[in-house]
Amino acid sequence: MITAGNYHRLNVVRMKDAGAYLDDGATGILLPRRFVPRGTKVGDEITVFVYHDSDDRLIATTQHPKAVVGDIALLQVVATTPHGAFLDWGLMKDLFVPHSKQIAPMRKGGEYLVHLYIDAQTGRVAASQYLEHMLSNDVLTVKEKDEVDLIVYRQTELGWMVIINQKHKGLLYASDVFQPLRVGDRLKGYIKQIREDGKIDVAPGIA
């Protein structure tokens, strides 16, 4: 099943002036000519990212977005409207954040940590500032001394709350940090300690 907001490997079923049409089991998904790799022919398999265009049609691109559905990423606001804000996620069409998914009104030029999801009403990729429901330490997928990917979430009295592997929350103590940090920064780290209550202490670098 072809879903918006993800990468797919699709076969070229026909070539037209507008570009290459890729097999979706129906009328085909257009890969605009500007994104068609040179030498592409019918039958070739291409890795593409699929999302909705301005006319609400699925469209393909060989561009690489800054995040896909399910990811948490720091993105910049390029425009605001009475209905929400638009973020630069690396594609020709910007990513929408409804007002209802903003913790506070976003401002143009600001950078915000958001989660990408599929809007249930429109089927389009959208973004939300509300991240807590995405993060849980109830069932852990990490263990002590594991190397992990960290995203700085917010500052606390003890240091920095971080997102671990896009799944869990952890604490990076200020005493372990020897570089300036800000929300959205990404860094490598390791699991320093997993406490009995499920809270996780992390440290930068490799164990």
> How much strand content do the residues show?
over 45%
Q: Using DSSP, what is the number of strands?
A: 15
Describe the sheet with the most strands.
5 strands, antiparallel
SSE order in H/E notation? Answer: EEEEEEEEEEEEEEE
Residue-averaged pLDDT: 94
Q: Give me the Rg, rounded.
A: 20 Å
Helix/strand/pairing category: mainly beta
Query: CA-to-CA gap between the ends?
Result: 40 Å
The low-pLDDT segments are none
How many helices does DSSP assign? 0
The amount of helix comes to under 10%
Order of adjacent strands in the largest pleated sheet: 3-2-1-4-5
What's the overall geometry? elongated
Task: Provide a quick synopsis of the model.
The protein is an all-beta fold and 207 residues long. Helix content is 0%, strand content 47%.
3D architecture notes:
The protein is mainly β and 207 residues long. The chain contains no helices and 15 strands. It has strands at 6-16, 19-22, 29-32, 45-52, 58-61, 72-81, 84-88, 95-98, 111-118, 125-128, 147-155, 159-164, 168-173, 186-194, 200-204. The strands form three sheets. A five-stranded antiparallel β-sheet has the order 3-2-1-4-5, with no helix packed on it. It has a five-stranded antiparallel β-sheet with strand order 8-7-6-9-10, with no helix packed on it. The chain is elongated, with a radius of gyration of 20 Å.
Key attributes of the depicted protein:
elongated, mainly beta, 207 residues, 5-stranded antiparallel β-sheet
Fold blueprint:
Elements: E1 6-16, E2 19-22, E3 29-32, E4 45-52, E5 58-61, E6 72-81, E7 84-88, E8 95-98, E9 111-118, E10 125-128, E11 147-155, E12 159-164, E13 168-173, E14 186-194, E15 200-204
Parallel strand pairs: 13-15
Antiparallel strand pairs: 1-2, 1-4, 2-3, 4-5, 6-7, 6-9, 7-8, 9-10, 11-12, 11-14, 12-13, 14-15
